[in-house]
Design brief:
alpha+beta, 4-stranded antiparallel β-sheet, about 220 residues, 2 domains
């Protein structure tokens, strides 16, 4: 079963990958971050927020910390950064070790479920429903793909647009993305977790479903790992 815990661990992997790939740009912005003590609570700045995962910079007793909270996990992860809120390569290594120790099996299970769900996608009935009138007027049919569960549909928001000609020629456009990412990280660097692909195919002779699934799996390889 794919639930909110699976979603959270995928977003956690995305956060660590985005952070690692853009650490120089992120640190240039974090160098300018100044948090001031306020009352009895510790000041915090949201760095990354998605369904089930939050990562924040916190100031406590003059030192900065990276705090990560994950849905379904009682204890949050807290790493001391020091007197500045920048994130060193050694911190990145600590985060990777922590992820592999605590979340790798769950993450692998989540990705396997995602891949299996993608491999079941079938748009041939959708293509068949494009009647002669739409073909004569070159109108497009648009379909939001469902993967069978609410959490998968939210994580893999997929729209397929098909234009079918008078012959068997098809023009297929695929848009898949994993959105709902917030936090100052999106201000520091452009964060877009998605791909758009299009291809032409002959309905009678070309593997229409196979090409579609390859585009969807590309999103998994590029953005969810």
């Amino acid at each position: 079963m794919f639930d909110y815990k699976n979603v959270a661990v995928v977003y956690l992997r995305m956060f660590l990958s985005i952070l690692s790939a853009n650490i120089t740009a992120v640190n240039k912005r974090l160098e300018k971050l100044v948090l001031e003590p306020t009352g009895v609570s510790y000041p915090m700045k949201s760095l990354f927020s998605a369904d089930g995962v939050t990562a924040s910079i916190m100031l406590r007793e003059g030192l900065y910390y990276l705090v990560i909270c994950i849905a379904g996990v009682v204890d949050h992860k807290e790493i001391k950064l020091g007197k500045t809120p920048t994130i060193s390569k050694s911190i990145l290594n600590q985060l990777e070790v922590w992820f592999h120790k605590e979340f790798r099996p769950s993450y692998n299970d989540s990705i396997n479920i995602i891949i299996a769900s993608i491999k079941r996608v079938n748009i041939k009935p959708f293509i068949t429903d494009i009647g002669w009138l739409k073909r004569l007027t070159f109108k497009q049919n648009v379909k939001d793909i469902s993967y069978g569960t609410f959490y998968l549909d939210q994580l893999l928001q997929t729209r397929v647009t098909v234009q079918r000609g008078l012959t068997n020629r098809l023009h297929v456009f695929v848009d898949i993305h994993t959105g709902n990412i917030k936090g100052s990280l999106t201000e520091y660097i452009p964060v877009h977790a998605g791909i758009m692909r299009s291809y032409y195919a002959n309905q009678a002779t070309d593997p229409v479903n196979k090409w579609l699934r390859e585009a969807l799996l590309e999103h998994v390889d590029v953005n969810l790992k």
